[in-house]
């Protein structure tokens, strides 16, 4: 009896955790990260006690959402790399169809608290670095086969993604629905290997992006 009940209990606990994270991600994205925890519990269809047993405070819930979203993005990136042999198509597929990529960027923009929690989480940081390395690898592979212009880097794409998706995040609903795909398609069109205007400056590196995140974190602390 105990042997049969224990796996079922663990499965129920896992389902509750997943429901809470999914509900919290949706509610936080729609209404901000200061929504009462009771509202999260209602949206997830669980009692407030169940929520607090899984996530004793708001910070632990925000961290779990970030870790889950980054892991899903990594899984999507790996799956696309495994099934798509053409480097340029793999890059386009990832940027345009990886649904959780938008979630990660959008969630990190919700509030200073969300940014600070994600920046301080070692699992999120490791996943972010791995994601940038995968993106950089896609870029280099597309450049190596001649399908992408040679004067950009994975870091450049990371910066452009943040700019594009941040602008889309604050746009009205009727614009936001298709805007990210529209502007990312426009961006990708300009990245193809063909005669064009030489880019000023140097490519952005992964280290540059880390420095930008650090500067943003310091600025957030100074405004608190």
From TrEMBL:
GO molecular function: DNA-binding transcription factor activity; transcription cis-regulatory region binding
InterPro entries to which the protein is assigned, alphabetical: Homeodomain-like_sf, HTH-type_TetR-like_transc_reg, HTH_TetR, Tet_transcr_reg_TetR-rel_C_sf, TetR_SbtR-like_C
This protein's UniProt keywords: DNA-binding, Transcription, Transcription regulation
Residues in HTH tetR-type domain copies: 14-73
DNA-binding region, residue intervals: 36-55
Keyword Transferase: no
Signal peptide: none
Any single Pfam family the record assigns to this protein: TetR_C_43
Descriptive protein name: TetR/AcrR family transcriptional regulator
Lineage of the organism: Bacteria, Bacillati, Actinomycetota, Actinomycetes, Pseudonocardiales
């Amino acid at each position: 009896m105990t042997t049969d009940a224990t796996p079922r209990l663990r499965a129920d606990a896992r389902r509750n955790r997943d429901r809470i994270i999914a509900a919290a991600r949706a509610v936080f994205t729609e209404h901000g990260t200061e929504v009462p925890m009771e509202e999260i519990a209602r949206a997830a269809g669980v009692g407030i006690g169940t929520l607090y047993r899984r996530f004793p405070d708001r910070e632990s819930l925000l961290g779990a959402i970030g870790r889950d979203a980054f892991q899903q993005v990594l899984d999507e990136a790996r799956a696309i790399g495994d099934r798509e042999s053409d480097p340029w198509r793999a890059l386009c597929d990832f940027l345009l169809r990886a649904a959780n990529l938008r979630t990660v960027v959008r969630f990190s923009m919700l509030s200073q608290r969300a940014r600070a929690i994600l920046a301080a989480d070692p699992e999120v940081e490791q996943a972010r670095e791995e994601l940038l390395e995968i993106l950089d690898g896609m870029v280099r592979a597309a450049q190596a086969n001649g399908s992408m212009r040679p004067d950009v880097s994975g870091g450049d794409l990371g910066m452009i993604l943040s700019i594009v998706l941040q602008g889309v995040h604050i746009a009205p609903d009727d614009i936001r629905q298709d805007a990210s795909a529209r502007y990312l398609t426009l961006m990708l069109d300009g990245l193809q290997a063909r005669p064009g205007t030489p880019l000023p400056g140097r490519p952005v590196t992964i280290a540059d992006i880390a420095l930008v995140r650090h500067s943003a974190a310091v600025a957030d602390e100074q405004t608190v």
